[in-house]
DNA sequence: CTGTTTCTACGAAACTCTTCGTTGACATTA
DNA sequence: TAATGTCAACGAAGAGTTTCGTAGAAACAG
């Protein structure tokens, strides 16, 4: 059952996923602590969200111990790709070029980043041949 | 008062904005017709959304005629940039490179698109000097 | 063993989002 | 003018989101 049919995470859910991606499998307490500074998230709030996310299939819960351990089902890259594809359709009419343009101009990418992206484009052009 | 403080449009609101961007100032009927095919949106639904969007400041209403005419407050590019910046922070930790990478690989950009993007990067590198 | 802390579970409150039925005003036309 | 159609306004329903209070079980400290 179906990594591909995962729902789009909400804002609060995405914040939790980011912690899980960074830390790896974590307890509610650990996620709460990580989110408390930037978001002021309380313990029961994080717990409830993570329970909902378990129902949705966004995270997996290991409850073999009293303190349950949660981990993200989809890797960061998968979810990011889903979100980008979604935004692409909803806001850009599918034009990847327009999206990239806005991405590069909104936050000034560093010189190094630009070089990286250029390299990526070179590779894609080769493959496209 | 504050184009810059416009709230992030919801999914349904964004669909309406896209119609307004494409058609220019439009009536509820026109927006409904445009959205009915792809979304099955009913008249009162579109009306209600557009009234809410007026309250939020996303659209402007000209009610000098009996049939009101709505127009988007922010240009497509502004809103798109806002959405990209938002996604960048929420999902990519601010790494434009990662976002561009996912954008280019998720939907295969065409050869022409890649060339356009390369041109853009060239320009940005010049400016960065 | 008793009191304290830590955890999960549950439910509810407040809010937003989306949809649509109904109503009354206005316009068109027959 | 009477019937018909179009419009904005309003309210409410239903779902989803986010937050948190409370309760009970488990672990732990004295």
What's the layout of helices and strands?
The structure is a homodimer of 129-residue chains.
Chain A: H1 11-23, H2 28-39, H3 43-56, E1 59-62, E2 69-72, H4 76-92, H5 96-106, H6 111-128
Helix pairs in contact in A: 2-3
The structure holds a DNA duplex (30 and 30 nucleotides).
In short:
The structure is a homodimer of 129-residue chains. Helices cover 66% and strands 6% of the residues of chain A.
Describe this structure in words.
The structure is a homodimer of 129-residue chains. With 129 residues, chain A is mainly α. Helices cover 66% and strands 6% of the residues of chain A. The first copy, chain A, contains six helices and two strands. Chain A has a two-stranded antiparallel ribbon. In chain A, α2 (28-39) packs across α3 (43-56). The N and C termini of chain A lie far apart (36 Å). The mean pLDDT of chain A is 91. Chains A and B meet through α1, α4, α5 and α6 of A and α1, α4, α5 and α6 of B. Chain A binds a DNA duplex (30 and 30 nucleotides) through residues 10-13, 27-29, 41-45, 47-49, 51-52, 63, 66-68.
What keyword list fits this structure?
two-stranded antiparallel sheet; 129 residues; mainly alpha; 2 strands; 6 helices; DNA-binding; homodimer
């Amino acid at each position: 059952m179906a990594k591909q049919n995962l729902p789009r995470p909400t804002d609060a859910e995405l914040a939790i996923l980011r912690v899980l991606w960074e830390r790896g499998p974590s307890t509610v307490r650990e996620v709460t602590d990580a989110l408390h500074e930037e978001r002021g998230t309380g313990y029961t709030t994080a717990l409830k969200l993570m329970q909902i996310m378990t129902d949705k299939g966004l995270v997996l819960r290991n409850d073999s111990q009293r303190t349950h351990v949660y981990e993200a089902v989809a890797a960061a890259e998968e979810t990011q790709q889903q979100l980008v594809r979604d935004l692409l359709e909803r806001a850009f009419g599918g034009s990847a070029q327009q999206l990239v343009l806005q991405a590069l101009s909104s936050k000034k990418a560093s010189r190094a980043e630009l070089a990286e992206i250029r390299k990526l484009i070179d590779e894609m052009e080769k493959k496209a041949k």
